[in-house]
Amino acid sequence: MITKIKLTVGKGRMNTPMSTLTTRGRVLPFTEKERTEEETVTLESSLLQLIEDNRRSSLQLREKTERSRKEAIRHAARTADLLVKAVNGGVEECFVNEKRIEAEIRSLAVTVARFGKQTDQWLAATHAVNSAVKEIGDFENWMKTMEFDCKKITAAIRNIHEDHH
Asked: Which listed residue, of 14, 18, 51, 116, carries a Cα 20 to 30 Å from 97's Cα?
């Protein structure tokens, strides 16, 4: 005797089991009591199988969700690292440029101070030359005055000398 139990599950509903008895090509119905006992055992084992399948698929889904979560965290960390590198690359370049500019500013400040001292020395030398030229001019003027005075004195002495002779 071969017993066929057909239990179909689809979209959350369970169809009632159909019990048939196959004997030498003819289909004979079970007696009511045999059918109820057989359906209960089969229904119970089917429900246990459904529960086990549900537990297994839930476990697989949890594992897949956990793997996906870990992968998403790994991708987010990688993205964050890339963003930090991109931002830091620009910041690092700015920092290097800033240090280079600061070094150039210090160098230029030293050069400006040196030129300032040199300019002060040139101004002092120019003032000394101007004073010397002024003194030369004053001396020249004094010499002209002295020459004029000497000529007057010489003329006066001649006049006196000519008057006495």
From this structure: 116
